[in-house]
Amino acid sequence: MARVFDVIEYPDAMRNEMVRRIPEQGSGDFRIGSQLVVRESQAAVFVRDGQALDTFQAGRHTITTANVPLLTNLIGKVFDNRTPFTAEVFFVNMTEFLNLGWGTQQPVIVRDPEFGAAALQGFGSYSIQVSNPQMFVAKIVGATSSYSTRDIENMLRGVILEKLQDVLGELKLSVLDLAGMVEEIRGAVRAKCAEVFEQWGVMLKALVVNSLKPAPNQLEVLAEMGLVNAGRVQGYQAMQTAKATVEAAKQPGGVAGVGAGLGAGMAIAQQMTQGIMAGQQQPAQPPQPAQPAQPAAAPTGAIPDIMTTAQAAAYLQITEADVLAMIADGSLKAKKLGTTFRVTKAAIDEYMAA
Asked: Please, what sign has the CA dihedral across residues 120, 124, 129, 134?
């Protein structure tokens, strides 16, 4: 026999709990005249046979056919104004849920007008509040006895990341311009997410972008997807090897202690390059030998204090594409002038010494 409730309430602090169902399983017997107590931070939704009957805000309510009009048809004839009826009550937490986190588990791939493609990573926080308790219970909670923020976070994070990728694709920004456009990106993502959240009875109260930048392994990620050529990857790996050699030379024992590690790194780079080149060949054509990108010719005469990317490439003995990649991921400082860049000799020396 179902339990008869004369007083319906959920006095416990809800904290991260968004919804609590009374009773937790099955249906309860409620009477016309029963008292419903809804606390200041709650709303209560009556549900019978999967249909939401009405929503009550904070206060003490006496259940009647006047304040739950759908009961008249569902219960039938009321005997002595005390006829029991079966239903469930969902107490919904109406407070704002703060500091929920979002972040990219895998880099987000976007088109880049200057570099062709970019692999970005980002993270931040957001806050939500239930705006329509009846809709939230009907569309999200269902018959669950208890529903907390952890039950919905994965779904909300997925929407944020999807809309972030949409906005970045629409804005067509270079990764070099991201730092100055974070507020615009945040506002556009929030607007797009808010439309989706509202369909579930949830309001997106705030969205914060703490970081949005190229992934540290950007070239490797793009290479695996065939979005950069083998020469660029090979040049990048050679540059990293040269930098590691300079660093190792500063340590006791010179470069001898890292010889094995560098050899393994070069072998991996070679395998990556060969794999990419094989994937880029057309099936109907005979295999073509790999043509690694050639470094720029070494500069002659005095080295200028301010260089073009081509001059910087010649100074470093790498390709110009590698210099642009270093500028894009922020490892090499440069100044953008119109559509070109200028790099100081001091910035290059600082990079090599880092």
From this structure: positive
pTM given for the model: 0.64
The answer as to whether 105 is a domain residue is yes
105 and 177 inside one domain: yes
Question: How many other C-beta atoms can be found within 10 angstroms of the C-beta atom of residue 181?
Answer: 16
Q: Which domain holds residue 243?
A: 219-277
Q: Tell me the pLDDT tens digit for each residue of 127-173.
A: 999 999 999 999 999 878 899 999 999 999 999 999 999 999 898 88
Q: What phi, psi does 141 have (nearest 5°)?
A: -80, -45
